[in-house]
Amino acid sequence: MTASTSSGQLSDRERADGESLPAYLTPLPTTLEDLGLRFAWLVVAINLAGTAFGFWYYSGQFAETTAVLWPWVPDSPLATLFVALALACWKLGREQPWLTALAFFGNIVLGLWTPYTLLAFADSYTYLSPLMYNFLFWSHLAMVVQALVLYRISEFPVWAVAVAAVWYWSNLLVDYFVPIVGEPHHTIIPVARDAAMFLEADALGVIAAGEVTFVLLALFLALAIRVKKCEAVLDRS
């Protein structure tokens, strides 16, 4: 199998691969996928701007966090940086499967986790202006949309999926289960970590359950795409 062309004119082979995948793996309209890929440099620029904003947004937490934990602080900005770099490499004809897999995982996981968290603690996010709340909510859902286009530029080899799985597995460990320094570390939430929530879970358990679920979802989707692409090649041979 060959990766998708980076030219503005998308290949018939590429379209055939997409059509061979089940709808649950390719839920976006083909027109929207084509648009995103044709204007990939614009998508790269938007994601780089989002990355810069994200690092600014986390500046206060960087100041309060020991340097050894900094790689695990800016989750969403790293995800947007991954997708910007992945698309840029593809446009330059040097698609990097490990980078595309990281982008896919990051934009699925953080694109879903942030709206989930905003909804779970909606009563406690009143300090955010309605404009900022909606910006965070919808911009993160847009990350999921761009993740669902990445199957068009990569074959998701198992080794690349493993790289992404290991990184986001380490993120889960550091955030919720095995702290490197001090207590489990994560994005600051607007309630105490041991605050009682629904189904007798505490606040940290609620956000942990969400992120574990979304990491497993990204892993399933990436491997399912790989399997279905391989099956499509065998069917055509």
From TrEMBL:
UniProt keyword Ligase, yes or no: no
Protein's organism: Haloarchaeobius amylolyticus
Name of the protein this chain belongs to: DUF1405 domain-containing protein
Key words, A-Z: Membrane, Transmembrane, Transmembrane helix
Superkingdom of origin organism: Archaea
Transmembrane in keyword set: yes
TM segment ranges: 39-58, 70-90, 97-119, 131-151, 158-178, 203-227
